Amino acid sequence: MKVLAVETSCDETSVAVVEENQILSNVVATQEEVHAPFGGVVPELASRRHLEMLPTLTQRALEKSSLSLSDIEGVAVTASPGLVGALLVGLSYAKALAFARGLPFVGVNHLEGHLNSVFLEEKNTPSITSTPSNSPLQRGRMAGELNAPQYPYCCLVVSGGHTSLYHVRSFGEYRRLGNTRDDAAGEVYDKAAKLLGLGYPGGPILDRLATQGNPKAFHFTIPNLGDKTSLEFSFSGFKTAVRLLVEKQKTISPTFQQDIAASFQEVVTSFLLNRIISAAQKCNTKTIAVVGGVASNQGLRKKLEALRAEEYSIHIPPLFLCTDNAAMIGYVGGQYLKRGVQSPWNLNATAVHELG
Ligand code: KG4
Ligand code: ZN
Fold first, then answer.
1. Which pLDDT does position 124 carry in this prediction?
2. Whether the CB of 31 sits within 6 Å of ligand 1
3. What pLDDT band is residue 177 in, cutting at 50, 70 and 90?
4. How many folded domains does the chain comprise?
């Protein structure tokens, strides 16, 4: 089934055409320049930009897949969780498209999209690769290099809005093992970068800067969440620690920025790694997936790669599938449509929608 998918949950507008786990096209328009002057996403501006971009992106996605609208057999769209205004734009657009073409339509949970992003493959074009490393985990997967996990697997969803661990037994069977108690990891990367006067979005900037600093220059403590086997997260303390260090400085030098970035990166990635290992042990599996925007972090990818030596089977999507994209929504939507699951025309958008 050829599915046209729409994703507008936050500040990326994306349209994709997917057939089973094959990406026929996946077009993403970031809104970085819209939100950068404000140092964070402005919900109304995000909705307005989605509205402007969707028709053009749909046309581009169809062209790239060498298909026309009459070849499309189903429509999938992110319905939750996310910014409600932004979601409503994509949802209304996808409904109108499906209704006008007489196509089956399904709303998808954004988190379920991320959880399944490890199954996607590109049919035509190889992954975007801008990192110097030759390692598949560092550069992202190339076409034909299948890296789909076997069920059951343990998955860390780590992005700007979420940091949660799941036990995935099969498609649609997710059990949440732990969650963040406050900020998400990506959110705290962005906030720390903002405190250091680095641009927006801060995650990738801080990641790059971390390679130039001393990871031992500053000591950040992994929070004690009561139980050693806890699968919960807390990131707000790191943000406070960065703020206190910044406040002590008269001027923020490039060396200070680099050392904070490296020390922050070291503690956050160690924390994430410790938790995912504990989760895998609890679930009695050695198959691990890490997905979402922060899965593109090079420090985290290096640490995960090292786990392979301990016979873990590690699955991380290529870089362009870590951040928000419609291809992952198309894959999940296609799986539901194939099973006869459709959404009603009055499906609404929901800001908070936990999975598992
Ligand atoms: O999955 P995503 O595109 O959107 C959400 O669903 O939240 O994730 C975006 C988040 C942002 O907070 C961004 O700063 C972070 O992922 N991010 C990174 C990196 N690339 C993106 N954080 C750390 N290191 C990176 N390389
Ligand atoms: Zn996301």
1. 62
2. no
3. very high
4. 2
The predicted-structure confidence for 299-343, as pLDDT tens digits, reads as follows: 999 999 999 889 999 999 999 999 999 999 999 999 999 999 999
Residue 356: CB atoms within 10 A of its CB come to 16
Choose among 170, 148, 166: nearest CA to 156.
166
The residues pairing with 30 across neighbouring beta strands, listed in sequence order, are 12
Whether the predicted pLDDT of 243 surpasses 90: yes
Supply 18's token pair: 């997917």
pLDDT over 70 (residue 97): yes
Q: Residue with the nearest Cα to atom 20 of ligand 1?
A: 204
The letter for the amino acid at 123 is: K
Which amino acid appears at position 246 of this protein? Answer: V
Residues 110 and 159 sit within 8 Å (Cβ to Cβ): no
207 lines ligand 1 (CB under 6 A): yes
Can you tell me the distance from the alpha carbon of 339 to that of 324, in angstroms, rounded to the nearest whole number?
25
- What is the rounded CA–CA span in Å between residue 272 and residue 278? 10
Kind plus residue range of the DSSP H or E element containing 289: strand 287-291
Name the token pair of 68.
């026309």
Average confidence (pLDDT) over 217-230: 88
In 182-208, which positions are buried (b, 16+ CB within 10 angstroms) versus exposed (e)?
A: ebbbbbbbbbbbbbbebebbbbbbbbe
From ligand 2's centre to the CA of 18, what distance in Å?
18
353 found inside a domain: no
Answer yes or no: is 242 within a domain. yes
User: Would you say the CB of residue 161 lies under 6 angstroms from ligand 1?
Assistant: yes
Per residue in 154-172, pLDDT tens? 999 999 999 999 999 999 9
Q: Residue 311: which residues within 8 A CB-CB, separation 6 or more?
A: 286
Torsion of CA 117, 187, 155, 223, to 10 degrees: 170
The CATH number of the domain where 109 resides is what? 3.30.420.40
**How many other C-beta atoms can be found within 10 angstroms of the C-beta atom of residue 331?**
30
Q: Within this chain, do residues 10 and 72 fall inside the same structural domain, yes or no? A: yes
